[in-house]
């Protein structure tokens, strides 16, 4: 790619010999180079702020106020580290995550991981359609109209569209998240209290607190994000020369997505928690509850954000699942292929869309319970994926000079150990409380 040459450090050093105007023009090309590569990191991170994520963040804000905001600081750093390893493996090896897991850990281990991902992702996909239904009903539109139409639209976009078109639409959908920033300011929180809680850790062994914390981690750092971001990098045919720009895409996308999640917690904490509303049965309930305190516009902004977020995740999640299963089984994959060329890949995607839409049409689905439970499963599955990612990114034979450095490896393993410890702690306290 012509623009990626401007990211080379030696080349940039040589530019210092040229006139300032010439250098400014060349450095402007770096910006366009970033725009050309822009996509996988931002889309993957924002897809984590889906209907289930919004419900989880709303529950965190309503139930615990600002006291869990501190989790976003280490969580953002952790997500950057994990996503960076995935895109680095993608540009170096030209293979997806499931491909590498199969080659390095064997078919049985791969089958177990893929089955777990399939079950967890199916649950989340259903929740995305439920989120779309509830968001549309806030505007007086029946779910029996919205769900089939949106399902058909996403299917048509992915199956009939090109990779570039799909990516552009997904990026456009990410713009709806700014609605949550506005909602947070309409809620008029005490910003000094917000800042204090964001940098003052609180910890409790109470099972509800631990469950919510793991659900928070599970909805922000989800296995499908790692699969999607690495597969997207590979499908765009990005290589080692593109690595600096791909890494920047991951960092920008993660900072944006985690900031949006924090604003959702802030808006619900400043309104619902302060009014004594600590339990929610859906993300739509959170939107309705904002109206008496923050005004009707906050409710509709919240609903628009919920609809757009669910639409984005409704496309990304089935794609990530189709990528992972197709890679694990060695089948042809990619958005550039037709049904005839990649029947398994597009068949999995289509099946997940149909299943999610049909189940979501069943009335009375307990969304919050489904979403928190699904995200907790993702939080428990995450250590398995993290161990595989860190092991692969540290492998000299696979990564060569691009393998994890000593200090980066220490940080990556620390993240894996801490997340694993929290998951086991949650499981232990849940079993104890049960008996």
Written account of the structure:
The protein is mainly α and 435 residues long. It is built from 20 helices and no strands. Helix 3 (40-47) runs antiparallel to helix 13 (223-235), helix 4 runs antiparallel to helix 12 (207-220) and helix 6 (97-105) packs across helix 16. Mean pLDDT is 76; it is low at 1-16 and 22-37.
Strand content: under 5%
Total helix count?
A: 20
CATH superfamily: Amino acid/polyamine transporter I
Number of strands: 0
Poorly predicted runs: 1-16, 22-37
- Mean pLDDT, to the nearest integer, reads 76
Structural class: mainly alpha
| Estimated helix fraction | over 70%
For the report, how would you describe the main beta sheet?
A: none
N- and C-termini, Cα separation? 60 Å
Give, in order, the helices and strands: HHHHHHHHHHHHHHHHHHHH
Write down the CATH class: Mainly Alpha
CATH topology: Amino acid/polyamine transporter I
- What would you report as the Rg, rounded to the nearest angstrom? 21 Å
General form: globular
Tally of distinct domains: 1
> What is the level-2 CATH architecture name?
Up-down Bundle
